[in-house]
Amino acid sequence: MSFQAYLDNIQAKTGRTPAQFVADAKRRGLTEHGEIIRWLAKDYGLGLGHARAIDHVIRKGIPGGPRRKAPK
Q1: Does some domain include residue 71?
Q2: What are phi and psi of 25, to 5 degrees?
């Protein structure tokens, strides 16, 4: 499954875009891998693979796209 397919599946399941997850993580002050994974599992029911994909977008940006600094 491609990275984009993961993001598409996450959006279909949650109704949220990657940009919305990034904004929400920033608002909550989430910057560490473990805390982001726990938040996504608890609040959105995402499994580890899908949560890791969103974690990657939050902390590093979309692969092949511009790099992102971790939210502060």
Answers
A1: no
A2: -60, -40
Q: Which of 49, 38, 40, 47 is nearest to 16 (CA)?
A: 40
Residues near 68 by beta carbon (within 8 Å), at least 6 away in sequence: 22, 57, 58, 59, 60, 61
> What predicted TM-score, i.e. pTM, was given to this entire model?
0.84
Block mean pLDDT (10 aa), the chain, length 72: 89 95 96 97 96 95 65 54
For residue 46, the one-letter residue type is: L
In a domain, 70, yes or no: no
For residue 69, being part of any structural domain is answered with: no
